[in-house]
Amino acid sequence: MTTHLKTKPAEAPPVDAREPVARLLRDLRTTPGGLTAREAARRLQVSGPNALPSHRGRRWPLELGRQLVHPLALLLWVAGGLAWAAGTTNLAIAIAGVILLNGLLAFVQEQQAEKAVEALGKYLPDRAPVLRDGQVWHVPATELVPGDVLVLEEGNRIPADARLVDGTVDVDASMLTGESVPVTRMADAHDDASRPLDSPVLVFSGTVCVAGAAHAVVHATGRHTEIGRIASLSSRVGREESPLERQVRRVAWLIALVAVVVGIGFLPLGWLAGLSWSAAFVFAIGLLVANVPEGLLPTITLALAAGVRSMAKAGALVKRLSEVETLGSTTVICTDKTGTLTRNEMSVEEAHPVGEQFVGALARCSTADLGASSGDPTELALLRYASANGADLSLRDAARKALYPFDPRLKRMSTVDLVGGDLWVSTKGAPEQVLPRCAMPAGERARLLALVDEMAGRALRVLAVAGRRVSALPAGRDEAETDLILLGLVGLVDPPRPEVAAAVADCHSAGIRVHVVTGDNGRTAAEIARRVGIGADRVIGGEELAELPEPSLDEALTANGEIVFSRAAPEDKLRIADALRDCGEVVAMTGDGVNDAPALRRADIGVAMGIGGTDVAKEAATVVLTDDNFATIVAGVREGRRVFDNVRKFVLYIFAHAVPEVLPFLLFAVSGGMIPLPLTVLQILAIDLGTETLPALALGREPAEPGLMSRRPRRRSEGVVTGRMLLRAWGIMGLVSGVLVLGAFFAVLYAAGWHPGADVTSGALHVAYLQATTASFAAIVFCQVGTAFAARTERVSLRSVGLTTNRLLLGGIVFELVFAAALIYLPPLQALFGTAALPAWVVAMLLPMPVLVWGADELFRWVTRRR
Ligand SMILES: Nc1ncnc2c1ncn2[C@@H]1O[C@H](COP(=O)(O)OP(=O)(O)OP(=O)(O)O)[C@@H](O)[C@H]1O
């Protein structure tokens, strides 16, 4: 018994998608040739767009809430609770402020990140081929309506629920059914399935056509589709954490742990130094809160999102935020040749006809459409040539009796057509494949192979054309393609893209090797490779590769130099990707066909072609190139490196402030209270909350550092935090800042006649003490300005990147200074933060501090550069 699939396009009566085709077409008021464009537009008004409803709007309170209860925030809540219990309401409120503001900031940053990923859709609109007014149109998938007739082709994602009208396709329905083996769907199959999902005549939105060709009439779109129903039930899948984020989370926790230990350690020390228990407690909490890096992760997310956005502008759509960073650590790129290194603008350069049907065979043995300029560029070039040489292209489809499509493994295709009352087989393909199937003397074959070799040496793509007359339709491909008569050879040129040579040179200076994996002839590919600067030190043909044992392949891949893998089958890509990964390389692999999908998944970075690629390849890839251009991959690598560098920059910046903040407390404790506390708790929080955030964010937007593409790729094992970074953060900038901050503090105290042990809580010295802590606070702010400038570059001098090239940072610093000035000079804030207005001589003393801190690091970088 069959359950029938009902769909309800708003006003139309429900249709039964499994009724006979003729009835279904009538019920949907459409024809095998599709709707008219006008009718489709009208129906779109009624049925609404073919898109799934988004739940975005309703989720935000939840997301915001999540930011307030993540583990580090919880730690801060506990600290706030303790402050409350200890009776210091001001501190408790300030801590709550820190959490709320950071939560809000993190929320905004994550929303931005999500938007960046969603916006990618706009760069790569999903288009679907449909018949309208009897012609094929590529319309946006969102504009499909019930009654549209889809053209299903190998590699395409099916954009709506539909019933096959003619043809046969193999469909990967795993995303609906979980079953990964493709199933066959046939227009005239007998339908006795119990569920619509199993019906052999239906195809569903979201599934993928992996083989075959068919027409299908749409019966459900948008939320009426099967997947629409599932989508409205299931919730969103979580975003997976990248290695970078995992690393930084670990670092954040480590620092939080240190903060807790320092805080707890301060308790007895503070008490021994003469503080009351409650005062020591308050300072312990302050120290803890100041050093918990709760803003670190969202800042990274935002930096990655900014990277995704600028990569998209450059033509590389990165589908997952985390992969931005992986792309930056690429060590090997395996690239296709046609269309990626070359322009994919083919033209026939020379032809060597030997049989009179040569031009006719070229015209017949083709699936491209010269009028619509659609189809394989090789075939379009051949059709152009055939048409210019007198072939009639108009009768082709009507005369075709059989088609054995181009197979990237067999590297040839054939058709059987009616030519003037006779049946003719026409074959074209790689000469190595076609010549052995032609009857000819051995000497002749050798002469032709030598000619092919000579043409390939001039970077021509050579195809052999053959054919024969048959008395009856051959039983299958093998039978059709035997005993052929050679009709001629044809050589096509496909010039390299002009920008590729520079991109290859960039790869080389960046320590990235480029291997070419192509279906083309070895000599042709090697010649093209050389023309764009790729080494082509070794050419490994498909047959040689098949016989190459694993250790030899590994050896070839680890040896110096670059390899051209020619006559490669799609499976070879998988093997090469595997071997490279086993050798410890970070592999970016390009691909476009259905068969490339496994290799794209296996590579660290799968790169699919946006123009020439199938939906299957785009699904499997992590990066989609909107221009199919090799140079864009390299631009992506550059961007990935920049983003990773920037993450390091703000981590460095955030680390550096720990020393000047903690040092004063240590001094107080070690001196046994002879030296008063140089900073108040609320002042620390003001730095943490008010003055640090914007410059840190701005460092995430730093432009690329000179020399970015002339250093070796980062090793896989190399973390975000390095020893050198800690040395700069703590040993150099932190230490210099600490000394300067204490210097300012003591200068103000001594100027007022203070001596160690003097009482500063009341009397004549009290005002001076307030000014001294304010001077410490201001000194930290000034030192951090210097740190921010120093953090802008990792190795090179600040001069080489330019002082004003990061406007955002300048803005952040202005804000930082205005905020600090308000705290110091506005009376209500003075009362809250325990600050006092600073006299002019103190301000004058502070002014050179940024230069001193930056200068110390500049010197360090200079010394390490010299080494
Ligand atoms: N439409 C076609 N009909 C017949 N033979 C073809 C056709 N297209 C290509 N070939 C032959 O098959 C070989 C491999 O083509 P294929 O498209 O797989 O590789 P390619 O485009 O060179 O690969 P890549 O994009 O990886 O560089 C070509 O060198 C050519 O000899």
Polypeptide structure, described:
A hairpin with a 2-residue loop joins strand 14 and strand 15 (422-429). The strands form four sheets. The chain has an eight-stranded mixed beta sheet, with helices on both faces. Strands 3, 4, 5, 6, 7, 8 and 9 form a seven-stranded antiparallel beta sheet that branches. Strands 12-17-16-15-14-13 form a six-stranded antiparallel beta sheet. Helix 11 packs antiparallel against helix 26 (630-656), helix 28 packs parallel to helix 31 and helix 30 (723-751) packs antiparallel against helix 31. 50% of the residues lie in helices and 15% in strands. Mean pLDDT is 87; it is low at 1-12 and 233-239. By secondary structure, the protein is of the alpha+beta class. The chain folds into four domains: 6-53 and 125-233, Calcium-transporting ATPase, cytoplasmic transduction domain A; 308-341 and 497-636, Rossmann fold; 347-493, 3-Layer(aba) Sandwich (Calcium-transporting ATPase, cytoplasmic domain N); 657-702 and 722-866, Up-down Bundle (Calcium-transporting ATPase, transmembrane domain). Adenosine-5'-triphosphate (ATP) is lined by residues 336-338, 376, 378-379, 406, 408, 411-413, 428-430, 461, 463, 518-521. Residues 15-88 form the Cation-transporting P-type ATPase N-terminal domain. GO terms for molecular function: ATP binding; ATP hydrolysis activity.
